[in-house]
Structure formats: C-alpha cells, structure tokens
C-alpha cells in the first residue's frame, strides 16, 4: 500500500482547536477510554494519525465503518486519508469554502479529540455534585462547550466517575431564555420519565428522557419553553454535530441505551453547564461541609423556635412559591407565635450547585415537622445563595 503523508498534520489542526479552553476550568488530565464503542476506535485512529501511521489509521477507519456505516465523521476521515496519498492536506475535510455540514463534522472531530486529551482525573469531580441523597445512585453532568456528558456514581455520598459520552446540544448554543431560541438550558434538573422509541418518530432514535425545564428558578427568571429531552439520533445518523438540536441533549443511540442503565426517572439529577468547573476532593469536601453546616443551623433555629435567627437565613431577595419576602416573614412569625415545642428532621438531603456565576446551590430534602398535636412530612426544595460570608435562602417551595 502506498504510504501517506499529511503536511501540515491533520491532527495538528484539530489539536489547535481542542486546546482553546481556559486552563482554570480544565481538570488535570487522566487519559483513559471510558467506553468500548466507536469512540474508543476513533481515539486509536487519532493516535495513529498523530504518529504519522496513516496506512494503519486508514485500515482502522475502514474497520470502524464496517461496524458503524452511518458514522459520518469516520467517512470524512477516510476521505482525507485517501486524498493524503496523492497530495498533502492543508485542512481537516480538505475543502475550500463554507459548508455547514462539513463544518459540523470538523467541530465534532475537535470535540471528540478534546475529550480524549482532557479526561478528568479520578480525584477531581464537577463542583456541582456537592451531595447526592442516598436513593440517587447516579448523576449526569453535561458540558455543552466540550459536547460531553459525564456519569457519576454515588459512592456513599462521594461522586465517582463512571463513563462519559459525546453529546450534541442546541444549534444556537446554551443558556436557554425563551421558547424557540434553539438553546439548551443551563441549570439543575432531573429526569421526569422515559418515552420509548415505539411512541416517537425515528428522529428521536432509541428513546427520550424528558427533564423538568423550566424549573423553579427558570420560572422565577421568566424563562419559557418546554420539551427539553435527552434523546437519540435517527437510524441513518450515528451522531450529530455539537450544535445541532433545538435545545435537547442528543446522544448516539447506543450511548443513550448505555446511559439508560444509570437513569431513574424522578431521582436522577441532570446538571447542564456551559463549561464544567472541577474541584479536588479536598476542596469539594470543604465546600460541602460549609453548606451542610448552614443548613443544619437553619434547621436548629427553626426547631428551637428562635424565629428571628431562623428568618435571618432568608435573603431580602427571597421569593417562595406564592409569597414574597415580607409576606413570608409575617407568616413565619405568626406560625412561631402559635406553636409549641417541635422536632424537625431533615432526611434524604441532596445539594447541587447551579452552574453560572452566582454562587447558588439547589437543596432538596424530606422534612418532618412534629409537635404534640400533629406531624407533617413533605419534600422541600430550597435555593441557597452565597451573600458575603453567609449562605442565604433565595427560594423555598415544595419539591
């Protein structure tokens, strides 16, 4: 077989694109392959290209296409490797002019290569997973900038990396604001149900997991829209470009089927971030402990009926399901004046930091309020925000 040459290197162009990431947000690298599907094979092909073993890369690409004939990116790589036998290539996808489909494949290649080069280390975790409650066995974290979805297991409250997958998002990017803006929302959500492929057009592939957008905070901010799902791809398409959906998170069908093993509707959190920020386990534990202490102080002040200390935990910017700050304060003072001793317990506590500049955490728990006269048990959701040196509550309502 005739030897191939690429000058400049096809992979070099991709590497330049993949390294345009702020170092402050990138986790220390731990190069490992998290699945044994076509992406693992693609990573080996990238290695062959990087070491200028282009004939071997071509053979592996052909084998990949035999197994996954609808993998369009692999077709593009094969075409480049064929052209490289005749002349040096100057760009990935070796074509002049603007072609949206070709540009999408270039972006997909860069995203997949970037993920390979920047695997998070086992001792670093997304800063959003402060605490999973004991019934939440897994959590999903999406990084829209890297076109990546990560799965973490609840190991006695500590998040442990399980797997990661390439994932597409909104064609207009992230941070959804209104209906029809073609953006993927950023925030803390949970999976509400599963829709089987038998109930869906082929466009959605092997099924869909709706999430609860808009959540309480989205509604407070006036964000609109609906129908944000994690779903698969059409049968003739292995994967879509990084920015391709109307706001959903889209995975290859086999990846969605694997992901389904980790998702429990009603329990599994889905945190969507524009770009994941990572913490060492020591820093994670320190931040987790700080908020846990604030929640316990809130509970203790409410149980002790120290109403002014209890109310000091609520921000002046507080809003409840139906009450503003002034109405909430008045209501709680009336309740405190008429109640006797109480026992208040907090159980099944989860804490997930909301992505974005605001230091805000979504806290959900099961509260039992017990007095001599009655017992009340409910699921409660609070949004805690850092204000100066203190954590304060800016939203509270039923979960």
TrEMBL record:
**Signal peptide limits:** 1-26
Q: Which residues does UniProt mark as catalytic?
A: 231, 248
What name appears for this protein in its UniProt entry? Murein L,D-transpeptidase YafK
Against SUPFAM superfamilies, the record matches this protein to:
L,D-transpeptidase catalytic domain-like, NTF2-like
Originating organism: Azoarcus indigens
UniProt similarity note: Belongs to the YkuD family.
Record CDD domains: YkuD_like
Pfam family of the protein (one): Cds6_C
Q: Where is the L,D-TPase catalytic domain?
A: 138-273
Q: Which residues cross the membrane?
A: none
Q: Which InterPro entries match?
A: Cds6_C, LD_TPept_cat_dom, NTF2-like_dom_sf, Transpep_catalytic_dom
One GO-annotated biological process of the protein: peptidoglycan biosynthetic process
Q: Which GO terms describe its molecular function?
A: carboxypeptidase activity; transferase activity
Which pathway does it serve? Cell wall biogenesis; peptidoglycan biosynthesis
Report keywords, A-Z. Cell shape, Cell wall biogenesis/degradation, Peptidoglycan synthesis, Signal, Transferase
């Amino acid at each position: 077989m005739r030897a191939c040459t690429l000058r400049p290197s096809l992979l070099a162009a991709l590497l330049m694109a993949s390294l345009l990431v702020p170092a402050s947000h990138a986790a220390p690298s731990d190069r490992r392959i998290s699945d044994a599907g076509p992406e693992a094979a693609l990573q080996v092909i990238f290695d062959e290209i990087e070491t200028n073993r282009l004939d071997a890369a071509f053979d592996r690409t052909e084998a990949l296409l035999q197994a996954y004939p609808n993998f369009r990116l692999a077709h593009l790589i094969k075409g480049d490797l064929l052209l490289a036998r005749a002349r040096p290539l100057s760009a990935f996808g070796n074509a002049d002019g603007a072609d949206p489909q070709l540009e999408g494949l270039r972006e997909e290649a860069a995203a997949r290569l970037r993920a390979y080069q920047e695997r998070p280390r086992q001792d670093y975790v997304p800063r959003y997973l402060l605490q999973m409650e004991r019934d939440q066995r897994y959590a999903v974290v999406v990084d829209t900038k890297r076109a990546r979805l990560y799965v973490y297991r609840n190991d006695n409250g500590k998040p442990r990396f399980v797997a990661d997958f390439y994932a597409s998002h909104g064609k207009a990017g992230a941070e959804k604001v209104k209906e029809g803006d073609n953006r993927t929302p950023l925030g803390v959500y949970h999976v509400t149900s599963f829709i089987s492929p038998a109930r869906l057009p082929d466009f959605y592939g092997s099924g869909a997991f709706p999430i609860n957008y808009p959540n309480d905070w989205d509604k407070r901010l006036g964000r609109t829209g609906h129908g944000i799902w994690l779903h698969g791809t059409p049968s003739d398409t292995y994967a879509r470009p990084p920015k391709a959906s109307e706001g959903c998170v889209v995975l290859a069908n086999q990846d969605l089927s694997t992901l389904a093993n980790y998702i429990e509707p009603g329990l599994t959190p889905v945190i969507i971030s524009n770009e994941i920020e990572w913490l060492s386990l020591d820093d994670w534990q320190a931040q987790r402990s700080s908020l846990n202490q604030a929640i316990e102080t809130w509970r203790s002040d409410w149980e002790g009926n120290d109403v002014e200390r209890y109310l000091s935990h609520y921000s002046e910017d507080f809003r409840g399901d139906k009450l503003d700050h002034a109405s909430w304060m008045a209501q709680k003072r009336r309740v405190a004046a008429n109640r006797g001793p109480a026992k208040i317990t907090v159980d099944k506590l989860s804490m997930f930091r909301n992505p974005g500049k605001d230091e805000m955490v979504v806290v959900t728990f099961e509260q039992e309020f017990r007095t001599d006269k009655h017992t009340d048990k409910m699921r409660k959701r609070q949004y805690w925000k850092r204000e100066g040196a203190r954590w304060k509550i800016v939203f509270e309502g039923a979960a």
